[in-house]
Amino acid sequence: MKPYKPETLPLENLNWEHLISLMSEANRKLARYDGILHTLPNPQLLLSPLTTQEAVLSSRIEGTQATLEEVLQYEADPKKSTEKYADIMEVINYRQATALAVKELEKRPISLNLIKKIHSVLLQGVRGETKARGEFRKIQNWIGRPGSTIEEARFIPPDPAELMKYLDNFEKYIHYEERDKLVQLAIIHAQFEILHPFLDGNGRIGRILIPLFLFEKKILSHPMFYISAFFETNREEYYNRLKSITDNKDWGNWILFFLKGVIEQSEKNTSKAKEIMQLYNEMKEKIVSITHSQYSIKVLDILFKQPIFSASEFVKKSEIPRASAKRILNKLEESQIISTVIKGTGRMPSIYRFGKLIEISNK
Questions:
Q1: DSSP-assigned beta bridge partners for residue 351
Q2: What is the per-residue pLDDT for 204?
Q3: Coil/strand/helix, residue 190
Q4: Is 285 found in the same domain as 267?
Q5: In the predicted model, what is the mean pLDDT of the chain?
């Protein structure tokens, strides 16, 4: 098998008629989801657990085992040792890489330099860190079973000597005026995976680019679209559809698969965002009536931003006097809004869990 020579973008001979029905449905469902984003008072805060869950699921496709609760619990008490430390750090890096990209997009469009910057954060201090972090590869890589040789490869990405030529074309296509932006995004995601421009982390970078593109093209008002659950559930088809592009130039069925993912996840994201908003409004009333406190909105925001938290972090982040904070936490627990995960002893603070929000995020 020789290194693959990808097609130049934009694609010629794409059968648009074949795509129209799912294309219009995907655009409609995504617009409906964006309508919900517009109604949220603070999407970054309210959808924070969904952003972490996206990082969990995208990393899981690459073999990590950490769950949403394990990540949140680690963040609530980083001093406590955990067997999943390496996996948790990969998830946290994913979230930080996405946050960096969003900040960069305020100043400049998606570019190859930005992609390298995202990659550098993604692999900082985790497995793959020594594999040319933040740099496009200069050696040949291949995809196959763990430990397989290049002769046994399932796929050999483009020759490193030609890689920059293809990446330049890829970057130009991101800013090309395609007939439909979601079809364009399907092509961008697949082409990035085909180019496999890094020695590690390609799958995750390719998935991070999805909400960034939707945000840059103003299809979404916030870069919050969570598609990894669809890819993770349909992992085998995800890889097979990509492989059928390189084996048979079958772009049509890959694009249809991607559009189905956008439709399914738009519906799920809409439903979760609505449930979270409903929970927020419900809790706003409940916390005011339970605590009778001037700090009730601060309390509410901490529960939604960090649904697993320590008593000491609660005091620090809310800036509520310690005695008042303790009284509020006791009242929230008595009312079963939060529950204790770990009872504090000596200098170790108690860890609390806001279960209703975690349940929605895990759906």
A1: 310, 342
A2: 95
A3: helix
A4: no
A5: 94
